[in-house]
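Hello,

Our lab assistant flagged a job as stuck in the queue for most of the afternoon. It eventually completed. Since we weren't sure the result was trustworthy after the delay, we are filing this so someone can double-check. Below is the sequence as submitted and the structure that was eventually returned. Let us know if re-running is recommended.
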Amino acid sequence: MLIGIPRPYTNMDNYTESSNSTNTIIPILKKTHDVLVIVILVSIMFGMGCCTTGKQLWSHIRRPVSLIIGMICQFVIMPLTGFTLVKLLSISPLHATGVLIVSTCPGGAVSNVLTYFCSGDVPLSIAMTTWSTMIALGMMPLNLFMYGSNIATDDVVIPYVNILLSLIYITSPVAAGMLVRWKFPKVAPYFTKIGSIVGFGGITAAQVMEIFIFPDLFEDITWQIYFTSSLQPLLGITVGFTISWLLKRPPASCRTIGIESGIQNIGTALSVISLSFDFEKQKELLVFPWFYAMTMLGVSFLLVLAYQVYKRCSASTSIEVTSRQYNIEIIGIDPQKPSISAEKYNNLQQMKY
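-- returned structure --
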């Protein structure tokens, strides 16, 4: 559905067992979707690598305070949040399974590009994505075992090979981008912008394709699914930001930890689902990841928009404050206190230039 696994629908045996379902699948569209997922991942991670240096990345590994906070948010708080919502809202077993699987997933490449647009700590975001993908090899089975009271955890196959493969797809483009940044520092920022735009555009196209791949995906959707899929990304971002702020992390790190906590790797969730369940059950299991992905994109867009507006307003306010300080310190006049005539003040302003 989104990013992280090159072939999200890999259970081809289950895929072909149902003759009714096979008639609704467009093979060419599915193959195009799979290729597009790889293009999205490579584009985003290469672009993020172009704005990262090895020194920046190493600083977070050498002093991993922010990394540890992020891992706690991602693998302790988020699974607990998903399990709590499942219990409180009495979500049906298969839908609940989808909620729990998404809640235990590591971060994905979408969080990296969102961090970039929100002026977060991109090296920290890349480090968190890489480390969470590795830690997920153990934490995903552990969390599914701990919170799997509504699912048969013995039947859930964790795709270790695919998770390791996703780690390669994450780190390789980043390393290539960092090499470009080192060799061609003037050109690297252009690759970052291009990769970000291609990534967001590709994600939207992939989401649309999935509607045609599963045309009956939205049948019998309960209000609990809409509510949970809308709430969980917001909870993750809010909780991650708040905890890091309370622990006095820098503002850029707070934004990054919040984004990494709330933006999950949907590709990993889809891989777990497709490798664990029959195709007939996959339709119901995929409902929550799909709506979560759509909400995640919506939240990401609104977050970037709100931050860009805030940044512009802050820059305008900063210019006004600087100008006022100049008037007071250099000229000796405060324009907010009309102690002189407007004509005299305007004359002094002209003299300043």
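-- support follow-up --
The delay was a queue issue, not a problem with the job. The result is valid. The longest helix spans residues 287-331. The radius of gyration is 24 Å.
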